Amino acid sequence: RFTTQAGSNNVTYNAAMGALGATAIGSGVLLFNLNRTAAYANMEAEGLHPADYPFPQKKMLGTFDHASIRRGFQVFKEVCAACHSLDLVYWRNLVGVAYSDEEARAMAEEYEYTDGPDDQGEMFERTGKLTDPIPRPYANEEAARAANAGALPPDLSLITKARHGGVDYIYALLTGYTDAPAGVDIKEGLNYNPYFPGGSIAMAQNIFDGVVEYEDGTPNTASQITKDVVTFLNWAAEPELDDRKKIGAKAALLFSSLTLIALWIKRNRWHTIKTRKIVFNSPKNWGKSPFDKSK
Fold first, then answer.
1. Torsions phi, psi of 110, nearest 5?
2. 114 touches 168 (CB < 8 A)
3. Is the pLDDT of residue 285 over 80?
4. What pLDDT is recorded for position 183?
5. Residues 249, 61 contacting (CB under 8 angstroms)
6. Which pTM does this prediction carry?
7. Nearest to residue 205, comparing CAs of 113, 88, 291, 79?
């Protein structure tokens, strides 16, 4: 019971409020550290927390590694595109980011797209162009489920923003496949991955050493391949990241300069008022009434 009475009650009140504040701060620090801890009691249901991997784009002023984006798209085409779609990315989006106009146009022309109707009202097939989206592996959701034992492979356009942990989670998931520990029962057709909620995932491990051959000679280890495809998926979800950070740096520089100018102007305009001295000199005839006409 708190009281504001004078004397010893004030000491009790202050001590109680101090203890309450310390408890709140301590609870916040504890929850923060528990959230950052990789292993915890409900790990199996929610999945193991990923480590903090040093992707350059995660830094305050860090930007994408565009060579990694190019390699990551190669990994997506050769490995991921067999099951996953990328509906929000078009061939034209790759121009100036990882490929030239000619390279992107040549890749688009490798695919056939249904277009139309023509003058006869019929749909027709044509070669791809820059304005087309990256083609889907399946015609519809039902076909995707039928080919994957009932599981629906998610679209990867926004996957790094749609999962808690972002790029760290995707990297940990792709490299985290292992044998199930003793006592853990994995159903037929599923795979054990401690980073996936529940531990059982329908997607099998698809990234191994040498699964792709990089055209630029980069070592094709499983960790490098995973890093590249995760970087590409991060770009697909946030293609404006480089420009956003560039604009943010310019804005910070501009507003910092304007703040310094404003402080200087304020000091320059107000210093005469704040530093002036006001002196009151009483009149010599202070005690005389203003209505007294006598000398």
1. -75, -10
2. no
3. no
4. 85
5. yes
6. 0.78
7. 79
Which has the closest alpha carbon to 90: 124, 123, 140, 128?
A: 128
How far is it, in rounded angstroms, from Cα 15 to Cα 21? 10
- Residue whose pair of structure tokens reads 């531990």 in the numeric block: 199
Q: Please, what is the average pLDDT of the chain?
A: 89
| Residue where the block lists tokens 């504001």 | 4
Q: Please tell me which residue, 291 or 199, carries the higher pLDDT value.
A: 199
User: Mind listing the pLDDT tens digit for each residue in 220-246?
Assistant: 999 999 999 999 999 999 999 999 999
By DSSP bridging, strand 112-115 and strand 124-127 are antiparallel
| Pair type for strands 200-201 and 191-192 | antiparallel
Nearest Cα neighbor of 160 from 246, 74, 229, 208 is 229
Distance, CA of 230 to chain centre: 12
Return the DSSP state at 111: S
Q: Which tokens sit at 288?
A: 């005389």
Helix axes 166-175, 222-237, angle to 10 degrees: 150
Q: Are 99 and 70 in contact (CB under 8 A)?
A: yes
Q: How far is CA 95 from CA 62, 107, 168, in A?
A: 21, 11, 27
Contact 49, 163 (CB under 8 A): no
CA distance 25 to 124: 66
Q: What is the DSSP string of 181-237?
A: PTT----TT-EE-TTSTTSEESSPP---TTSS--TT-----HHHHHHHHHHHHHHHH
Q: Find the helix or strand (DSSP H, E) in which 113 lies.
A: strand 112-115
How many Å apart are CA 73 and CA 218, to the nearest integer?
A: 14
What amino acid is encoded at 2 in this protein?
F
Vertex 178, ends 172 and 181: CA angle to 5°?
120
Q: How do residues 62-85 score in pLDDT, each as one tens digit?
A: 999 999 999 999 999 999 999 999
